[in-house]
């Protein structure tokens, strides 16, 4: 099973809290724009959910593939 990650870039204010929690999933490019893996293995679920919860503007949505976005 996989986990889908979406980031609403209209909401994202580049606080970077997600990068601190899951740096191999979320990172800033050289222009300080947030990037992320759109899909990760289910073993990363808890960490990705924690990264989404750390976002102060709630720009990150996480869902298991085959389920509705939470």
Explain what you see.
The protein is α+β, with helices and mostly antiparallel strands and 70 residues long. Helices cover 21% and strands 29% of the residues. The protein has two helices and five strands. The chain has helices spanning 17-21, 45-54; strands spanning 2-7, 26-28, 34-36, 39-41, 60-64. The strands form two sheets. The chain has a three-stranded antiparallel beta sheet with strand order 4-1-5, covered by helices on one side. It is globular and about 30 Å long. The chain starts with a strand and ends in a 6-residue tail after the last strand.
Secondary-structure topology with pairs:
Layout: E1 2-7, H1 17-21, E2 26-28, E3 34-36, E4 39-41, H2 45-54, E5 60-64
Antiparallel strand pairs: 1-4, 1-5, 2-3
What is the CATH topology assignment?
A: Alpha-Beta Plaits
The level of helicity is 10-25%
Structural class based on helices, strands and sheet pairing:
alpha+beta
CATH architecture title: 2-Layer Sandwich
CATH class label = Alpha Beta
The overall pLDDT, averaged over residues, is 93
User: Treating each run of at least 4 consecutive H or I residues as one helix, how many helices?
Assistant: 2
Sheet bearing the most strands, described? 3 strands, antiparallel
Query: Could you give the distance between the termini?
Result: 16 Å
Spell the H/E element sequence. EHEEEHE
> Count of DSSP E strands?
5
Rg from Cα: 11 Å
Strand content: 25-35%
Q: Note poorly predicted spans.
A: none
Number of domain modules: 1
Spatial ordering of strands, largest sheet: 4-1-5
- Outline type: globular
């Amino acid at each position: 099973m996989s986990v889908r990650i979406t980031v609403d870039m209209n909401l994202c204010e580049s606080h970077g809290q997600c990068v601190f929690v899951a740096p191999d999933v979320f990172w800033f490019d050289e222009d300080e724009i947030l990037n992320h893996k759109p899909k990760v293995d289910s073993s990363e679920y808890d960490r990705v959910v924690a990264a989404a919860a750390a976002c102060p503007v709630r720009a990150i949505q996480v869902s298991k593939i085959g389920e509705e976005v939470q």
